[in-house]
Give the backbone structure.
Amino acid sequence: MSLTGKKIVLGVSGGIAVYKAVDLVSRLRKKGAEVKVVMTEAATKFVTPLTFRELSANPVVVSMWGEVHEFNVEHIALACWADLFVVAPATANIIAKMATGIADDMLSTTLLATPAQIVICPAMNTNMYEHPITKANLQKLLDLGYKVLPAAEGHLACGTSGAGRLPEPQAIVEYLEQTIVAAQDLAGLNILVTAAGTREAIDPVRYISNHSSGKMGYAIAQAAIARGAQVTLISGPSNLPVPAKVNFIAVDSAREMHAAVLDYFTQADIVIKAAAVADYRPKEVSSQKIKKQADANLTIVLEKNPDILADLGQKKTKQFLVGFAAETNDLISNAQEKLRKKNLDMIVANDVTLSGAGFNADTNIVKLLYPDGEICSLEQMSKTKVANILLDCILAKRKI
Ligand code: PMT
């Protein structure tokens, strides 16, 4: 997969491996990429900005307060210009700043502002690299969708041997070509994902809902973003952090979700409805907290909510429509019935009675069902892996 025409911002932080970043700029340009370099003050102590300017054929930015090269606010202009943002070498310090959202110089501020895929190439002393804080920071960034090229092992400038070397520039270029650019297989696609359960108000303090945490839907949104899609995530209440770079719409009830989904439906290429939508809502919503009645039962009359997915099944034109089926019995036949009735292109059936599957679990066990009767069974795996296989299968079916 080619780097030709890719706009790459190279963030260079201060470590002895800065000299390898010089070669990296050269190799990226030979591959046809356009490169702009942002350096930390510390990095300029190892190699001057002039060297990077000559090799990149672009001005090098170091300070927030230096000469402005673009008409727009510089760090925002650079952040938005980038197709890809590579930090090499990435010191423990810049990694810690990224993991905590600190923006106190040009590089850290631009990193916080960019919607581009960020690739971190750590380089530091082995003890620093293996320190639990650095490990936790890298894990946090991985969870947020950043990519990390692990440091290489070998002799380090500090005189020790171990993990912490910046991989050779050629290896970084190959990683970018094979892992990052090739993996942008959803670029240009608009994906609408729904997640979590809806809440149907009974009175100002009570509601009817279900056990959906949002984990499945958020994993799909996150995976789609990492693969280059534009993602709108419409979510019922959830405690999960909103994945970076998604267009996030928070809703409460099924009717709110319905309205939000219709707003984004026409522009969507793919719709994945992982949300657990309440089929019914209280017919009357009391404006005041309902008081306990002595010796009397309370009856709440429920009325039907709109079936959002069935509505989309009627309205769909170009959209590839994927539903989920949460079942406690007759998994296949119930899911097939929903697939047919709602006019779907695929349904993801999960038996929510299995341990390691369904509500609030970190893993899921699903079967993918298609209108032609094909069934693909997946073993227990993380919801992130389910999300990626689901996206692979959608892409494959859309091409047919
Ligand atoms: O969020 P987690 O804790 O990670 O749990 C994941 C999950 C179990 C919620 C998820 O994997 C799942 O199965 N989601 C669908 C739950 C559900 O509502 O299933 P259903 O069989 O009732 O609905 C079938 C499909 O119709 C679903 O895509 C649902 O979003 C949609 N639907 C249902 C009712 C309704 N009124 N409108 C709808 O659009």
In short: The longest strand covers residues 320-327. Residues 325 and 349 are 5 Å apart (CA to CA). The longest helix spans residues 383-399.
